Amino acid sequence: MFLIGCSAHLDQTNSYAAIINYNNQQYLGGQSVDIKQYTNIQSVGEIVQRVDAEVYPSAHLMSNAVDKGTKVFETSDHNLLIKQLNGEYQLFCPDDSGVKG
Question: pLDDT for 8-67, tens place per residue?
């Protein structure tokens, strides 16, 4: 990482996108979706630990955006869904960029 500029302090903090680590693959959080559009989903576990937003979730079923105990579902097209507090579901898609924490 390179730092460019001259400043005695930083006004912003670095943080990752909303990530779930599932089977050593990072899944990035996206939009809320209607669960009815998915006909074949299965429960694959629940979040075991939530870390701070600026920390990369490095272990299976760890997240920097989803609370511990939140159930995680896998769709037939290998995306993940989590149920949010408002009752909607958020879609998490695999990050194929190869970038990791």
Answer: 334 445 667 899 999 999 999 999 999 999 989 999 999 999 999 999 999 999 999 999
- Residue written as token pair 């898609």: 93
Q: How many residues make up the chain in this entry? A: 101
Strand-pair partners of 50: 63
Report whether 9 contacts 46 (CB < 8 A): no
Spell out the long-range contacts of 6-13 with Cβ–Cβ below 8 A and sequence spacing 24 or more.
13/54
Q: Write out the two tokens for 99.
A: 């970038």
Cα separation values, 39 from 75, 76, 84, 94, Å: 8, 8, 19, 20
Three-state secondary structure of 9-40: CCCCCCCCCCEEEECCEEEEEEEEECHHHCCC
pLDDT of residue 1: 38
